[in-house]
Amino acid sequence: MRPSTIQTTLALLAAALITAGAYWLIAEHDARVMAAMRPFISNADQTAFRPTPDEQRVAIQFSDTTLPQLQQLGLISRYTRTEAETIITVNGRLWKERSPFFKESFIEQLYLYNKVHGYALRARVIDDATEQLYAQIIPPDRRMVF
After folding, report:
1. 14 & 30 share domain
2. Three-state SS letters, the chain
3. 7 is in which domain, residue-wise?
4. Could you tell me the pLDDT band of residue 99, with boundaries at 50, 70 and 90?
5. The model's pTM
6. Domain count, the chain
């Protein structure tokens, strides 16, 4: 015996009501869980790093302008980022010709770039031929140029 149109409609309506009720229960449960987590979420938000507009500007300039130009000049030969550190290999002769101000500025920009983007802060600048260490950043806040 085939169900009538009324029986089919009632069955679909009952299924829709059951589904809506289940979604409502899930939404209520999620709201209660989120309300219980609110103190922890606000604490996490307060301790999160929020870059200043100036730090963001420096990071954008470093990635969009500084790195490409230094690669074009032949100063930077390779830029490698791992989960633990950033390694920049440079042409040793060209690096040595740069002023201390340039080197310190470069390291500061690299530090801000990694910090703004959430990358590991540890970084090294090494000679591409001899692997001699020219500069490094040791977290949390130590920058050294040799």
Report:
1. yes
2. CCCCHHHHHHHHHHHHHHHHHHHHHHHHHHHHHHHHHHHHHHHHHHHCCCCCHHHHHHHHHHHHHHHHHHHHHCCEEEEEECCCCEEEEECHHHHHHCCHHHHHHHHHHHHHHHHHHCCCCCEEEEECCCCCEEEEEECCCEEEEC
3. 1-48
4. very high
5. 0.65
6. 2
